[in-house]
């Protein structure tokens, strides 16, 4: 008897898992579409900056550096300066 109840509930559980999986996939797909749109917007901004005479490579570096914690950035700059000095690349 208990076996019949378990078998009766399985389709509902299976259906719930299937619906939940579908919802996760659809959410990820929507987020991927939004990410692509944002990436396209970022590319457009860099393109606009280039047209206005800005060096895009330097601009990307500035954006990357601004994301870093100031102490982390200072540490990386000090290490870079040490390496450049050791290689004779600094005056």
Task: Give the topology, please.
Elements: H1 2-51, H2 56-67, H3 70-86
Notes on the protein architecture:
Helices cover 87% and strands 0% of the residues. With 91 residues, it is an all-alpha fold. The longest helix is centred in the first third of the chain and has 50 residues, at 2-51. 0% of the residues are buried.
Low-pLDDT sequence parts: none
Q: Can you give the mean pLDDT? A: 91
Assign a percent range to the helix content.
Answer: over 70%
Name the overall outline.
Answer: elongated
Radius of gyration: 27 Å
Short summary of the structure?
By secondary structure, this protein is mainly α.
Q: Which terms would index this structure?
A:
91 residues, mainly alpha, 3 helices, 87% helix, elongated
């Amino acid at each position: 008897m208990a076996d019949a109840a378990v078998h009766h509930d399985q389709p509902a559980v299976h259906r719930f898992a299937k619906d939940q999986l579908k919802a996760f996939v659809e959410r990820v797909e929507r987020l991927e579409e939004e990410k692509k749109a944002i990436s396209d917007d970022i590319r457009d901004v860099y393109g606009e900056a280039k047209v206005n005479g800005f060096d895009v490579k330097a601009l990307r570096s500035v954006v990357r550096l601004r994301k870093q914690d100031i102490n982390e950035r200072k540490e990386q700059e000090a290490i870079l300066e040490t390496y450049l000095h050791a290689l004779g690349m600094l005056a």
